[in-house]
Automatic annotation (TrEMBL), chain A:
UniProt domain ABC transmembrane type-1: residue ranges: 85-299
Source organism of the structure: Xaviernesmea rhizosphaerae
Pfam families to which the protein is assigned, alphabetical: BPD_transp_1 (PF00528)
UniProt xrefs under InterPro entries: MetI-like (IPR000515), MetI-like_sf (IPR035906)
UniProt entry keywords in alphabetical sequence: Cell membrane, Membrane, Transmembrane, Transmembrane helix, Transport
Name listed for the protein in its UniProt record: ABC transporter permease
CC terms in the record's Gene Ontology section: plasma membrane
Membrane topology: Multi-pass membrane protein
GO biological process, one term: transmembrane transport
Regions crossing the membrane: 27-53, 89-110, 122-143, 182-201, 222-243, 278-302
Protein family according to the UniProt entry: Belongs to the binding-protein-dependent transport system permease family.
Compartments (UniProt record): Cell membrane
From TrEMBL, chain B:
InterPro entries associated with the record: AAA+_ATPase, ABC_transporter-like_ATP-bd, ABC_transporter-like_CS, ABC_transpr_MalK-like, ABC_transpr_MalK/UgpC-like, Mo/tungstate-bd_C_term_dom, NA-bd_OB-fold, OB_MalK-like
Residue ranges constituting the ABC transporter domain according to the UniProt record: 4-234
GO molecular-function term, one example from the UniProt record: ABC-type transporter activity
Family: Belongs to the ABC transporter superfamily.
Biological source species: Xaviernesmea rhizosphaerae
Protein name: Glycerol-3-phosphate ABC transporter ATP-binding protein
Membrane topology listed for this record: Peripheral membrane protein
SUPFAM superfamilies in the record: MOP-like, P-loop containing nucleoside triphosphate hydrolases
UniProt subcellular location: Cell inner membrane
């Protein structure tokens, strides 16, 4: 494949304009998409972040000025924010762990053949199909001793001393949204883990069985290594998502009682839409964004390390 | 080392019966090859011996003990899978030592067993690699190594070579044979490839449609196939069959082929006059003889194999194969006269079973 001798070297004899046009050509073709992406993704993000450095209060017509780091300074002194941060850890950790645990158990059960498995697999999806605020309302009613059975059952089982509403109990309130969240989030883990389970070659289990491995050893040396990448990515996604997920809390407890169920996301919601202080709310959102980005980076790096080690 | 015995063993999946009444006694140190077309139930039978499939009817004994209900890990057998089934997250060494580690053998014993096996299989340079960084042939060796480190009572192989290319398959075949010679372990080997069966087996079990057709030494099956199925399955290129009717004479019989061609036999065969019989002859036993050849044949196609030549002929309009090492035969479109040496003929009755030998 040699060039015909008559063709000149492409660089010589080209004007500067010509070269610029050549270089810019691909950018012109992709410009519509790039502009769209910038407009849809970056502009709102930057606008939102800029609020963090401005005084924006919806009810104050004189607000809107640039205030620098004032919001962040206020935030560093804000005990309610620190409590929300701790609650977020608690809410996210417990929800993700329980969703994952029950999702995994459910996936393992659904992986075994039994009569009616197809229907069971379809039913597992059901909570996922319920709008979150409806799920929140439902669970709030279930926990309400006046109309819901749960407090009475729990009292009968001895878990509660009296059939009270746990959503009104400062020490137990967080469990209400967590339980609702676990119920609602199990299908996600169950379905993704089931898909990963079904991709494991059956003969590996047979080989291990012949090699003398019991059910637990087969789970540890075959199932877990196969599931690990799926587990890592689903937990990462769910953690970020649940840390931002205030719907159930807003509907069920609205952050109460006494801010005991206030997570950062619901705190932002409260600041923005109840106090109407958009500037301060944006500053909190900025901090949450940075924290979640840092968390994601750490997980991505760990995952990369693990893949390289393989 | 162990003997394995199957007695009237059957298997059904739900209402579908895939194996019926298999009787087989495998002696200590034998190399048994189960051979048959795809779907005839070879793997199912092997998996029942391994304990991976339940035995629907009959009994399976290992060393005289009934093991029908025993779990795979308590049967002390090793199995090599067609897909190799190597643990992808373990190194080669860990793959091989997994069963010993589960049995909590000491580190020294494990290291010794693994290094002995890897030396035997030429796996020393790959012990730290993961299976996915190995070629097909190396993976195959690891699967074998995993089986031999355990020193099990018996080895089971399910088409272990069918994912390899032809050259490697030949090489591994010889290696398996050599290893069986060294270890002398009882082995049951499943294949659909009759060459593998012929070369490896001390005894072949030919199967078709869930039933055992014949059990015997490789050359027994080749020389004296019990029925049409075995006759057609063993040997490559496959045996030629000519259908005809028996014509009984005073002391001898003859077979009359459809076009009226009469083939006298040197003795009397146990068939009624006019009964349908099938003549079989292997392509390598057909002779070409311009003068004395009794049947005229047209050459349709010539396949040179290097060693010799396979001629696809038309005999009375029926396809017929001939194998010869005579290269002079390599010319298409010719007409030949072929001979059917009587001592090479196989005769099968109406039901397809072998008749008394010629
Ligand atoms: N789990 C199963 N359920 C139903 N039928 C099966 C199952 N496993 C195998 N079979 C059937 O049993 C027959 C024998 O299968 P197999 O032993 O795998 O054949 P081979 O190994 O000789 O090719 C086939 O017809 C196959 O469809
Ligand atoms: Mg098979």
């Amino acid at each position: 494949m040699s060039h015909p001798p008559t063709v000149q070297s492409p660089r010589t004899g080209k004007s500067a304009l010509r070269r610029f046009v050549d270089a810019a050509e691909p950018w012109f073709y992709s410009a519509p998409v790039l502009v769209l992406i910038l407009a849809v993704m970056l502009v709102p993000l930057i606008l939102g972040l800029s609020y963090a450095f401005r005084d924006i209060q919806l009810l104050n017509p004189f607000s809107g000025g640039f205030v620098g780091l004032k919001h962040l300074q206020a935030l560093s002194q804000d005990q309610a924010f620190y409590r929300a941060l701790r609650n977020t850890l608690w809410w996210t950790g417990a929800s993700v762990f329980l969703q994952f645990l029950f999702g995994l158990i459910l996936a393992l059960l659904l992986d075994k053949p039994f009569a009616g498995r197809g229907i069971a697999q379809a039913l597992v999806f059901l909570p996922w199909a319920v709008p979150t605020f409806l799920a929140g309302l439902n669970w709030a009613w279930l926990f309400n001793p006046v109309i819901g059975p749960l407090p009475h059952w729990m009292a009968a089982l001895g878990i509660l001393s009296a059939p009270d509403n746990i959503l009104a109990d400062p020490h137990l309130a967080m469990w209400g949204p967590i339980i609702a969240n676990v119920w609602w989030g199990i299908p996600f883990f169950a379905i993704t883990l089931l898909a990963a389970l079904q991709a494991i070659p059956r003969d590996l289990y047979e080989a291990a069985e012949i090699d003398g491995a019991g059910p637990l050893q087969r789970f540890v040396s075959i199932t877990l290594p196969f599931l690990a990448p799926t587990i890592a990515i689903t937990i990462l996604l769910r953690t970020v998502w649940i840390a931002n997920f205030a719907d159930l809390i807003i509907v069920m407890t609205n952050g109460g009682p006494a801010d005991r169920t206030q997570i950062v996301a619901s705190y932002i919601f409260t600041q923005a839409f109840r106090r109407l202080d958009f500037g301060y709310a944006s500053a909190i959102a900025l901090v949450l964004l940075v924290l979640l980005l840092a968390y994601s980076m750490v997980i991505v790096i760990i995952r990369q390390r693990l893949i390289e080690k393989d | 080392m162990a003997s394995i015995a199957l007695s009237r063993v059957g298997k059904s999946f739900g209402t579908v019966s895939v194996l019926n009444e298999v009787d087989l006694a495998i002696e200590d140190g034998e190399f048994i090859v189960l051979v048959g077309p795809s779907g005839c139930g070879k793997s199912t039978l092997l998996r029942m011996i391994a304990g991976l499939e339940e035995i629907t009817t009959g009994t399976l004994t290992i060393d005289g003990e009934r093991v029908n209900e025993r779990r795979p890990k308590d049967r002390d057998i090793a199995m090599v899978f067609q897909s190799y089934a190597l643990y992808p997250h373990m190194s080669v060494a860990d793959n091989m030592s997994y069963s010993l580690r589960l049995r909590r053998r000491s580190k020294e014993i494990i290291a010794q067993a693994v290094s002995a096996a890897s030396a035997k299989l030429g796996l020393d340079p790959y012990l730290e690699r993961r299976p996915k960084a190995l070629s097909g042939g190396q993976r195959q060796r690891v699967a074998m190594g995993r089986a031999i480190v355990r020193k099990p009572k018996a080895f089971l192989f399910d088409e272990p070579l069918s994912n390899l290319d032809a050259r490697l398959r030949e090489q591994m075949r010889a290696e398996i044979k050599r290893m069986h010679g060294e270890l002398g372990a009882t082995s049951v080997y499943v294949t659909h490839d009759q060459i593998e069966a012929m070369t490896l087996a001390s005894r072949i079990v030919a199967m078709n449609a869930g039933a055992v057709q014949q059990i015997g030494a490789p050359l027994d099956l080749y020389d004296r196939p019990a029925n049409l199925f075995v006759a057609g399955f063993i040997g490559s290129p496959g045996m030629n069959f000519l259908e005809g009717r028996c014509e009984q004479g005073a002391d001898t019989s003859a077979v009359v082929l459809p076009k009226g061609f009469r083939l006298p036999l040197p003795l009397r065969i146990p068939a009624a006059d006019g009964e349908k019989v099938t003549l079989g002859i292997r392509p390598e036993h057909v002779t070409v003889d311009a003068q004395q050849g009794e049947i005229e044949a047209a050459v349709e196609l010539v396949e040179p194999t290097g060693l010799g030549v396979i001629l696809h002929l038309l005999v009375h309009g029926e396809p017929f194969k001939l194998f010869s090492t005579d290269r002079a035969l390599i010319r298409s479109g010719a007409r030949l006269r072929i001979g059917l040496p009587r001592e090479r003929l196989h005769l099968f009755d109406q039901a397809g079973n072998r008749m008394a030998a010629l």
